[in-house]
Each structure stands twice: as C-alpha cells, then as structure tokens.
Amino acid sequence: MPESGRRDRSSCMSERDRKPPFRRQGGKSPGKFSGKPRGFERQQAWRERETGADGPVILYGWHTVTLALANPKRRIRKLYVTENAARRLADERIETKVTPEIVRPGQIDQRLGPDAVHQGLLAEADPLPSPDIDTLEPEGMILVLDQITDPHNVGAILRSAAAFDVKAIVTTARHSPEATGVLAKSASGALELVPIITVQNLARALTRLDERGFQTVGLDSAGAEDIAAVTLREPLALVLGAEGKGLRQLTRETCSVVARLDMPGAIKSLNVSNAAVLALYVGASRLGLMSR
C-alpha cells in the first residue's frame, strides 16, 4: 500500500478500466489531466489530424505557442503546460487566453512522441482564416508554393517568409500539409505572422495575381535565365515547386517568367526551403526592401 494509506488503484483496475477514456463506451472522459493524459487522443489520432482529418490545430514549442497566444485572430481551445513553462509564462507576463492545465513533460511526450521538442507547451487551437487572394495589397513580395508537401520544408519557408516581411503565402488546398504540428513547430511562430491563402486552382490564382499587377516568377532549375539577370519589379510573386518534381507544367506556363538559381559549386540544386530564402534575399535586395 502507498504511504498515504490508499490502495494503488492501478493495481486493481480491470482491463476495461485501463483503456484510455476515448475508448470507453457511454462513459464521460475525465476533465483533469493527471495519471494518463486525459483528454488527449492517442498519437495515431493526432497524426491523422496532421494529414488533414478534422480536428483542432496542434501547436507546440515556446515560440509557436506564445506567438499564437499573442495573436488576436487565433482562438485557443486548450492549453497544456508543465510547471516550468507555467512559471516562465508568468515571469514573462504572457496572457494565456484560457486557463492552462498543468501536466508533466512525459504526458506531452506521450501526445506528440518523444522526439518532439515541445518545451513544456502544447495548445489546441482553431485554424486561422484563409484570406482571399483579392485582399492582397499589391506591394512587396509573396510566395506561391506549388504542391510542396513536406511540413518541415513549408515550416522553414514560413519562417524565412516572416524574416523577409513576405505579405502572404499562396498554396493549394490539396497536396499541401496542414498548418499544424510539425509544420507549425518548424515555422517557429511564423504561422501567426504570415497569412496563408489557400486556393483550389493554382494556375487560376497566378492568373489573378498577374491581373492585379504581380510579377509572377517561377523558380526552376530548367529556367531560361538566372534570376540575378531578370528585371524584377514590385509587387513580386516568387513561385516554388516541390523537390524532385519542381514546378508543374501548367504552373510554369502561367508564370510570367521562369528563372533558375545559378550556383558556383559542384552541387547545382538546393533544398526547396534553402532555395526560398536565397530567392527572397535576391528579390528583397533587388526591390530595395532590405532598407525599408
């Protein structure tokens, strides 16, 4: 018997009682987060949400969650924090929007997997609204992503986009990762800073951007000339394709210019997120955006 004099309930629970709350039939899920991660779905259920199933956006990590808390457009449903993270939130006077639930680090590990660097913070939130392409101001730079599916790459691109003050990212509703989980962590808070415009048809979106005055420049290793030799103008839309496949044919045909990124070394191609940051630097420098 434990020192408190109570019996260890886990030693006398039936197999039915040991099942996670969401597996019980007709019972109520406990409201507090103690023992097993109550209110948490299994890791597999979370991974299904990562691939587009219905459910809240999953945000974890210090920068990701605290910038979400600071975003008035982001509705937080639930917030799980460790004691250390709760103290840090209090020390930095960060408003949590909702009453956080104190959990052990291992409980968040169980939700996300042991390799996720959550820093004691996990939030469930509503997705941010997707603006309409016609609401874009014709200024600065935007990025257009043509079926880039790796959430790490898209997250890294978002982070670079925030650094270069990109006004929006345009992506397709299909064949693109959900703005949750790994993508959100890789973006390190940039989800709250760079609007994501989701479109059904990328070629039509590029045509609409052209009609609104954007110069649409596709980046492809088979481009006719180096982007350094292209006359760039504002507003500028840089179009990036998936690794391996590159830009789809219709996307290439719809861009006003298709250019390449020439490299002096033996390796002539870059990871798409690295290509994005290089193209953004070239674009920002040529348009005079670095000094604004």
From TrEMBL:
Residue ranges, compositional bias (Basic and acidic residues): 1-20, 38-47
Pfam families: SpoU_methylase, SpoU_sub_bind
Spans annotated as Disordered: 1-47
Location of the RNA 2-O ribose methyltransferase substrate binding domain: 58-131
Keywords attached to this entry: Methyltransferase, Transferase
Name the record gives this protein: 23S rRNA (Guanosine(2251)-2'-O)-methyltransferase RlmB
Organism of provenance: Bradyrhizobium aeschynomenes
Organism lineage: Bacteria, Pseudomonadati, Pseudomonadota, Alphaproteobacteria, Hyphomicrobiales
Gene that produces this protein: rlmB
